[in-house]
Amino acid sequence: MSRFGGFFNNRWFVFVGAIWVQACAGLGYVFGSISPVIKSSLKYNQRQIASLGVAKDLGDSIGFVAGSLSEYLPMWALLFIGAIQNFVGYGMIWLIVSGRMPELPLWAMCILVFIGTNGETYFNTAALVSCVQNFPKNRGPVVGILKGFAGLSGAILTQIYATIQVPDQAAIIFMVAVGPAMVVIAVMFIVRPVGGHRQARPSDDSSFMFVYSVCLLLAAYLMGVMLLQDLIDLSHTVIIIFTVVLFFLLIVPIIIPLYLTFRSDPRSPLEENLMPEPQKLELGKSSQSGTESPDVIFSEIEDEKPQEVDLLPANERQKRIAHLQARLAQAAAVGAVRVKRRKGPRRGENFTLMQALIKADFWLLFLALLLGSGSGLTVIDNLGQMSQSLGMIILAYLSP
């Protein structure tokens, strides 16, 4: 049972669960496929569709609510809120488009689109925050891989819908409402920060390279399959086979936590304690032995240790850090070193919302995204109409 408990608490298992969440979380990328259905069913003009696109972009971009709640709620609660918003927003749109509910005015439809797409921000927040906390030394690869799978989610959902082959075109909206919500609820207790070892390990590089290769292979596979389906009239059986291979590629990353849990050697105590969890102790407060706790002065160790310490083998690095801890603890005990609480986190560490708002880095990133992402969103929102104007049929296999 300890092995299974270790598997459930393995940070790579959490990462795989976050990949599955992101693989269905890119709801904004599906708008180009569902907007022609809404336009034809509700007799909207292009300006009205553009208004829905703006509401979608706002829902996809306003994530400070999810970010603020992540400081107070567990990750499963964030995922559950996002699933409810996704289901309610797009579920009601499906009821209206399919004629099961009376048509609502445009402003009400914009609110529904906003609510449904805003659920994506809860998915992104829970997945990214959990994995960044679990992999503090590998934040770049973690964020890049997760956003890569989010970018593929539109193609994944489209390929899955191609397997269903229902005559009702509005069914794609139903799938967008139900599919992501079901996946997120299924894994909402998996995606979370886990305790234990958080130091970079030698096997991390190869594991990230494996997952990144799977992401690239999945992208190439989806592009090839969709081009083939557009150029050749394939049978339903072949499309099902393509979708089964797609599911296989999505499940393949589970090999990493399985191998690390059931096949690899257990971690040594020295390696386990390289980066202990920070304790909520008051600075200046003495322990029962009369000396400062090593965790209290751990931030000073990061300041004092030479850079070459991080390049040493695990055992030697632990010895050097332990020696430095002992020296700082002894100096603090005799008053030679005065341990002070830092005023705020440094670049690369975790920030609260209020701490981030007073940093220039935050506003630089904010302005870069605000000014640079508009062109891409414009293409995504109007891709369906652009393709139709060129004589192409979006999701031709959706036609009855």
UniProtKB/TrEMBL annotation:
Residues 11-258 form the Nodulin-like domain. Keywords: Membrane, Transmembrane, Transmembrane helix. Its main location: membrane. The keyword Membrane applies. The chain crosses the membrane at residues 12-32, 75-97, 143-164, 171-190, 210-228, 240-260, 362-380. SUPFAM superfamilies: MFS general substrate transporter (SSF103473). Residues 271-293 are annotated as: Disordered. It is found in: Membrane. One of its GO terms (cellular component) is membrane. It is a multi-pass membrane protein. It holds the Pfam family Nodulin-like. This is Nodulin-like domain-containing protein. The lineage of its organism: Eukaryota, Viridiplantae, Streptophyta, Embryophyta, Tracheophyta.
